Amino acid sequence: MRGFDIVEIERIQNKALWEAFQLKNKQMKDNNNGHNVTEKKLFHGTKSEYVAVICHKNFDWRVCGVNGTAFGQGSYFARDAKYSHSYTEDSHVKSMFVSRVLVGDYTRGSSSYRKPPSKDRGVINLYDSCVDDEIKPSIFVVFDSNQIYPEYLLQYKSTHPLVSLVAASAPAPKPVPAPTPVPAPTPVPAQRPAPKPSVTGYQSSTSTYQMHTSPYRPSTSSYRPSTPSYQPSTSTNYPSVNRTPRFSPSPPPTPTPKKSSDSCVIS
Prior knowledge:
alpha+beta
């Protein structure tokens, strides 16, 4: 609903009412051949003087008063909070319950019903609740309080007229189109820098190879065979044998003197 502000939301925790609600749920399930029972969360507007008794004793149309009997003499619940709001008192803070209701199998109600009608014209197989419209129900009437568990209590008040006026005159926000997603840039492989030449290049050693100032000079004494050759001892008596010497070393040739101003000739 518009034009109202929530003052407080209270969650009701009543163990006795909750256990009775669960027991009724099981009984209805057994009567329905083991199938789950339809459960709805519905609104119920009431006066502030009945809030405490509902929280402690649950709903009872005989205690809470008769706000409407168009579809039966039971406790009324609505699908829309706007309908339940019309049954609250004209006070600064209003009260409304959000309840869990086992509506089960329902049919269209009547003002003369004090309990749900029979499904087969008998007295045992009855409907579970009554509604205003079997196709699209918006109002539900329950005759057994164990089918109800008051879960939340809403306390609310009307919005200040100036606040409502400002809210009504405020322009509706314009939808902002979502920005077009920008494709992520393709990663570019990093280029490796070209190798740089070494700062210190090849440097020759400071001490270079230097030849001796004095050129090669052969030794003053060249190779000469010794003058005394091998001679057998005269005192040893060997048989006289004529032998031809196979090799007689010849004296080495005299080296040719080099013509140079710095060289010397060895004779």
